[in-house]
Amino acid sequence: MVKQEISEIKKLFTQNNCSITRICGCYVDGEKNKKAQFGRAFLALPEEEMFKYFEILRKTLSGSIGRNLHTLEFPLKAEEEGGTQEMLLRLRDSKLKDDELLDAFYTNIIDSYEFVGNYLILVIHDAYDVPGRTRDGLEMEDASDEVYEYIMVSICPVNLSKPGLSYDAQENGFHNRIRDWVVGVPDAGFLFPAFNDRGADLHSVLYYSKDAEELKEAFVDLVLGCPLPLSAGGQKETFQLLVEETLGETCSVEAVKSIHEKIVEMVEDHKEDAAPLVLDRNEVKTVFADSGVANEKMEVFDQCYDAAAGDDARLYVSNVYNSRSFDVKTPEVVVKVDPGRTDLISTRIIDGRECLVIELGANVEVNGITVRGSMNAQNKAEE
């Protein structure tokens, strides 16, 4: 799913746009016991409760694509009878009215979900009448293309509220506040089926993880049955390792700068694309080659890629490229450069030592103090 499709679903979680038919839940304690279960028509909820659920649902579709949100593909075995996708499909088609099926689904989550403490499993069913769109992107409310029927699951921690004092209006005084069990923002969740090309894609699911580095592999494997990508940090580490291993002794500031500048060009070329920029093996190889990596070094690239990432691994550019700065670090010094102005830095051999040279412009500050460059001082002296 792309950002626009995710935003379209999030807009449904408002009172004016809501078409959610049913909401169900299971409260689980720290010992993995089902303490309470419920199911009701969503639009029959009190207004205040409805708004709280909307907030949870929107949070389940929050974060960055490739970091917190991942479109996962079902393998063929998951779509066979008794497979994970087939169970999710039955759950959706039941419109959450099959209590036995729901109970089995809760059990699958509880058996695989690693969490210390109490949590709430929320499941909604919705049937979204997808409006048609003109060629220039305008919605036509009276021209529906299809009905997108889906379920969404949110798993939320439930914690005791913080202790404190509260004001009692009747007694006109302050007393110890009663501590309640409060539902927090989702820790994980998913949307099935995915909303790809503004329609249901039964072969994929959108998975959410609040922690971009802890994707909960056991939970995804048992409940969704989909292979997980590398985490955002794992992708960054993999790319860094590929650069270091492929370049070897030629991994210099200038070489890394060249690769960075090539990626900056790619980002600029694709800035109007709806989908995030993702690199596979061949595209990473092309980046290296176009950056001037020697042919003899490229011969070891494939071996390095298999070892570091795996044959089918794909790397989101947003995870491997820092859009805020280009950093040069030593144990004592950190230099941050605008990622689009790496032309301002270079390396030179001065007095037998390799040095980083930074071109200073007209406006230079040191500890917030505007300084006059040595060139200015020299020019004034010559005058």
Task: Describe, in plain words, how this protein is organized in 3D.
The structure is a single chain. This protein has 383 residues and is α+β, with helices and mostly antiparallel strands. 32% of the residues lie in helices and 31% in strands. It has twelve helices and 20 strands. The protein has helices spanning 3-10, 47-59, 84-93, 99-112, 217-224, 232-247, 253-269, 281-290, 295-298, 301-308, 317-320, 374-382; strands spanning 20-28, 34-41, 69-73, 118-133, 139-160, 165-168, 173-176, 181-183, 188-192, 194-196, 199-201, 204-209, 278-279, 315-316, 326-329, 334-337, 345-350, 353-358, 364-366, 369-371. The strands form seven sheets. Strands 1, 2, 3, 4, 5, 8, 9 and 12 form an eight-stranded antiparallel sheet that branches. A two-stranded antiparallel sheet has the order 6-7. Strands 10-11 form a two-stranded antiparallel ribbon. The longest helix is centred in the last third of the chain and has 17 residues, at 253-269. The chain is globular, with a radius of gyration of 27 Å. The termini are far apart.
Q: Quaternary state, please?
A: single chain
Query: What is the CA–CA distance across the termini?
Result: 64 Å
- How helix-rich are the residues, as a percent range? 25-40%
The rough form would be described as globular
Mean pLDDT, to the nearest integer, reads 90
Number of separate strands: 20
Q: Which structural class is indicated by helix and strand composition?
A: alpha+beta
The major β-sheet equals: 8 strands, antiparallel
Number of helices: 12
Unreliable parts? none
Strand content range: 25-35%
Radius of gyration: 27 Å
